[in-house]
Amino acid sequence: MKSVKITAAVALVALGACTDPATLASQTDPNKNTKQGALIGGIVGAGVGAIANDSDPGLGALAGAAIGAAAGGIAGNQLDKQAAELRQQLANDGITIVNQGDRLLVSLPSDITFDTDSATVRPALRSEVNKVAQNLLRYPDSTIQVVGHTDSDGDAGYNLNLSERRANSVADILQAGGVTYNRITIIGRGEEVPIASNLTAGGKAQNRRVEIYIIPRKS
């Protein structure tokens, strides 16, 4: 019976967070990630609440789910809003912004950001990275991961070093724009995490990139 109560509580919150599953699944819904955040927060909160309330796990699950849904919805709404602002502010169509539900991913293709074999950000892209920095100042309650990637051409050790230097260059512009050092983590991945095939020129171009992950801090 306890399991039934917990499951029912989670289901109630899930329904409250999103009454239209088709809308939740839609990639064009501007509130998609708010709803997903509420749904995920409700499920996690239900589990925590059930564990915390030994005398009545069902009641604890319901309370925990409600709190978790509210917190998840707030975080999702902030990410939706921040992503919309970034899309409006950034002028270069080559830069992509993806809301992954629990974080934002801003991807800078290396072909438009750096010259070949260089870790110096091109002047035209410096202004775009600075716009990201200004956006981050308006949303201070987050941490940032700057991750560099390369294709598989050349020596793996050299590629790893180049990816880290490129990530550092982007992070330097963010810091120069006012983003504090303690918010930023710099990571070089080299050729380890391709997102396309390294057997084609187009795939290699996609793999050469610097990614900026914007991750809301958990309260």
From TrEMBL:
Keywords: Cell outer membrane, Membrane, Signal. The keyword Signal applies. Its main location: membrane. It is found in: Cell outer membrane. Pfam families: Gly-zipper_Omp, OmpA. Residues 101-218 form the OmpA-like domain. The keyword Secreted does not apply. Residues 1-25 form the signal peptide. PANTHER family: LIPOPROTEIN YIAD-RELATED, STATOR ELEMENT OF FLAGELLAR MOTOR COMPLEX. This is OmpA family protein. It comes from Ruegeria spongiae.
